[in-house]
Amino acid sequence: xxxxxxxxxxxxxxxxxxxxxxxxxxxxxxxxxxxxxxxxxxxxxxxxxxxxxxxxxxxxxxxxxxxxxxxxxxxxxxxxxxxxxxxxxxxxxxxxxxxxxxxxxxxxxxxxxxxxxxxxxxxxxxxxxxxxxxxxxxxxxxxxxxxxxxxxxxxxxxxxxxxxxxxxxxxxxxxxxxxxxxxxxxxxxxxxxxxxxxxxxxxxxxxxxxxxxxxxxxxxxxxxxxxxxxxxxxxxxxxxxxxxxxxxxxxxxxxxxxxxxxxxxxxxxxxxxxxxxxxxxxxxxxxxxxxxxxxxxxxxxxxxxxxxxxxx
Amino acid sequence: xxxxxxxxxxxxxxxxxxxxxxxxxxxxxxxxxxxxxxxxxxxxxxxxxxxxxxxxxxxxxxxxxxxxxxxxxxxxxxxxxxxxxxxxxxxxxxxxxxxxxxxxxxxxxxxxxxxxxxxxxxxxxxxxxxxxxxxxxxxxxxxxxxxxxxxxxxxxxxxxxxxxxxxxxxxxxxxxxxxxxxxxxxxxxxxxxxxxxxxxxxxxxxxxxxxxxxxxxxxxxxxxxxxxxxxxxxxxxxxxxxxxxxxxxxxxxxxxxxxxxxxxxxxxxxxxxxxxxxxxxxxxxxxxxxxxxxxxxxxxxxxxxxxxxxxxxxxxxxxxxxxxxxxxxxxxxxxxx
Lengths: 312, 337
What we know:
The complex is a heterodimer of chains A (about 300) and B (about 325).
Chain A: H1 3-12, H2 21-30, H3 33-55, H4 65-68, H5 90-126, H6 128-143, H7 146-160, H8 172-201, H9 204-211, H10 216-252, H11 263-270, H12 279-306
Chain B: E1 11-22, E2 25-37, E3 42-46, H1 53-60, E4 68-77, E5 80-81, H2 87-93, E6 98-101, H3 115-127, H4 131-144, H5 150-153, H6 163-175, E7 181-185, H7 193-210, E8 213-218, H8 221-227, E9 230-235, E10 238-244, H9 245-250, H10 255-262, H11 307-311, E11 312-314, E12 317-320, E13 323-325, E14 334-336
Helix pairs in contact in B: 3-4, 4-6, 6-7
C-alpha cells in the first residue's frame, strides 16, 4: 500500500525535508492507534498470504489425519487448531484461505476502481448531460440486489461452462465471483470520484494550470486525480473488507469455488459439526473477522489522517 | 510606454461579447467591450463585482467558465486572433505568451506538488528544456520575486509558505516563460495590506524588467492609481470610460467613474453618519445581467440620466487624446436598445 514508500522515505530523509501530502498523512496516521491496529492486522494477513506455502504445517489438501487419528479432533500439538470433519488440518486450511481472501478483496476492488474512477471521473469532469446520465446509471446499479444476482450468475455460469473449454481455466468460479463483486462494487467509488472531481475542477489551482497551458490530460491526471486519491484510498480500503465479507457469504451459502480454499467455504463445510468440532468453525470465522476488521480500521485511520478536519 | 497609436497594440479587443447560457436565461456578462493594451503598458480594468472583469480576462485566454460562450467580437493578440486559434495552439499561448496571476494564492497552487515540481514542469513543457535547466530557471525566478533561499524552496510545498510568499510564487510562475502579457486578476485582494504594497511594487518592478504588458483587474481604485498607465472602467459588462490614469483621476467624465471615485474614502476627510458628511455611495444595486437595463446600463443609478438614456445605448466617443467615454450626456452617439 501507499504507506510503505512513505515510511521508507521518512526513515532516510533528513528532518528538514518538508512533508508532502502523503507523508503528512502518514505522520498523522501513525499517531492513530486504531488505524495502526488495522494496518497491523492487514499486514499480518498479507504476510500470511505470501508465506502460507512455507509456514503451513500440512499440505492444504492433506486428509491423512482422517486415517491416523480420525477427523474432528480437538487442538493438539500435531494439529494446533484441530482437524475438521473431513480430516483437514484447520490451521493449514485457514492459512491457505488468506491468499484467496486477499485476491478477492484486491481483485474486486481493482475492477471496481477502474470502472468507478472512469465513470465518476468522466461524470464529474464533464458535468451537464453526461453527468446526469452516468449518475442515473450508477444509481441503477446501486438498487440492484447484488447478492441475489451474484448467486444466480455464479450458479448459471457454473452450469453453462460444464463441458466447454472454459472449464479448464483454474479458479474460474472464483474469478467469476471477483469480477461480479467488482462489477457491482463500483458505484460508491464512482460517486466519490465524481464528488472529488466536482470539487477539484473548480479549484483555482486547476484553473491556474489551464492558464499555464496544461492540456486536458494533464489537468485530469496530474492535477485532479492525485488530489482525489486520499478519499479514494479510504473508500477502496473499506471496499476490500466488504468484498472479502461478501465472498465469505457467497462461499458460506455453498456458491464458492470448490477448488479454492476460502474461509467462507470452510464455514460452509463445518457449520453442521459446530457442536462436535467448534474449532473448525471458530478459526476461519475469526480469520474473516480479523481481516475485515483490519481493513475497516485501516480505512477509518486513513480517513482521519487525510481529512483531519472531519474528526471531532 | 510607447507613443499612443504609434505601435500596433499587443492586445486589441473589439466588441467582445461573452454570454452565459443558464437555465434562468442569458446572462450578458460581457456585452460589447473594446480595449487595447500597448506593449509594456499596464491597463487597469476596474469595476465592481459582477461587472465582467474576471470573465473578460479569462476569455482573453479563451478559458471562460462553462456555460459562457463568446458570442461576438475579436481578440487580437500579437497579431493573431485568439478566438479562432486551435485548442492546441492555445496551449502554446497560455503560460508562454500570456500568463495569469490569480486572486487567491492559497488555492492557486496545487497542494500535492512541491514548488519546484509544479513550476519546473511549466518551463520544461513550454521551453522544451531538461530538468536541470528548468530548475535553474525556476530558482532564478524565485530569486527575482524576492524569495529567500530559492534553492531550498524548490522542495517545499505550498502549504508551508505564507500567503504573500505563495503570491510571489504565483507571480514567478506567471513570468517563467517571459510572457508578453500578464493578466493579474485582483492579485492583492486576499493579502494583508502591508503585503499588498510589497506585491504591487514587485509587479511593477518585474513588469519593467521583463518588458511585459499587464492587464490589472481590480475593484480597488487605490491599486490602479498606483499601478496602471491607463484605466478602463467597466460597468455591467460594458465599458464606461477609458483614459490614462491621470485623466481618470483628475477629470473623470463618465458619471459612473465619478461616482466610483467619490465613494472612495479619503484620508484627508472626516466622515460621519449624518447626510452631509456621509461617505457617498452609488445608489441602487448592480443590475441583473439577465435583463440588463435598456439603453445605458447605468441609467437607473445615474444622477444625470435623462429620458434618452433609457432608450439609447451609448457608443464610445473619443473626447480627448486616448480618452473615450460612453455617455450620451458627454456627446456619445448611440443606438436604440
